[in-house]
Amino acid sequence: MPEDRRTVLKVLSGVLGTGCAAAIGVPVLGALTAPAVRVTVKGARGFVPVLALEALPLDGTPVGIPVVVEAPEDAWSRLPPTEVGAVYLRRLPGEQGILAFTTVCPHLGCRIDYQPSRQHFVCPCHESVFGLDGQVTSGPSPRGMDDLGTRVVGGQIEVEFMRFKTGTARKVEV
C-alpha cells in the first residue's frame, strides 16, 4: 500500500509541476515570439500617397521614391511623418497605367538600384538583375521584383505599400 501512495504522489507531483511550468512558460514564450508575428506599427500598410502624377516621366523611366507615412502609430505613440520604405514607379506607355515595385530585393532583402545607362534594376550585393518589367533576368533572386498596387487620387499616385518574405520563389506578404 505505501508504494501505491508513493506512485500516486509521484504522478500528482509530475502533473502539478508540468502545469506550473506551462502556466509560466506559455506566456513567456508568447511574449518572446509576439513581435515576430504582430504588426507593431499601424498606418504603415495600405495605400500611401507618394508622388504627384505630373512628376512621373512620360517616357517610362523608373523613379525611386521614399514611402512616407504621415502619422503612423506604434503602441501608444503617434509618430511624426516616418519613412517606412521606398518604391520605384514607372509609367507604362499610353494609358496602360503605372508600375510600382518595392526596392527590397526578393533574394536577401538588399536595396535594389536602378542603372539608367543599362536600363535595368540591379541588386549590388548579390548581382541579381531585373528588367524594366521587374522580372529577374539573371542572378540568385528566386523571383522578380515585388510589384505593388497603384491608383491615382486627386492627381497623386498612391502605392499599396506592403512587405514580402525574402528568399522564397512565391510572393508572400509579411
What does this structure look like?
- The chain has 174 residues and is α+β, with helices and mostly antiparallel strands.
- The chain is built from 1 helix and 13 strands; from the N terminus they run H-E-E-E-E-E-E-E-E-E-E-E-E-E.
- The strands form 4 sheets. The chain has a 4-stranded antiparallel sheet, with no helix packed on it. A 3-stranded antiparallel sheet has the order 1-4-5, with no helix packed on it.
- The longest helix is centred in the N-terminal third of the chain and has 36 residues, at 2-37.
- The model has no long low-confidence stretch (mean pLDDT 84).
Structural features:
alpha+beta, Rieske Iron-sulfur Protein, 4-stranded antiparallel β-sheet, 3-stranded antiparallel β-sheet, 1 helix, 13 strands, 21% helix, elongated
Please tally the β strands and state the result.
13
Helix share of residues? 10-25%
* Whole-number mean pLDDT: 84
Beta-strand share of residues: 25-35%
CATH superfamily of the largest domain: Rieske [2Fe-2S] iron-sulphur domain
End-to-end Cα distance, whole Å, is 60 Å
SSE topology string: HEEEEEEEEEEEEE
Count of runs of 4 or more consecutive helical residues: 1
CATH architecture of the largest domain: 3-layer Sandwich
How are the strands of the biggest sheet laid out side by side?
8-9-10-11
| CATH fold descriptor of the largest domain | Rieske Iron-sulfur Protein
Q: Which regions are unreliable across 5 or more consecutive residues at pLDDT < 50? A: none
The whole-angstrom Rg is 25 Å
Tally of discrete structural domains: 2
Largest sheet: 4 strands, antiparallel
The coarse silhouette is: elongated
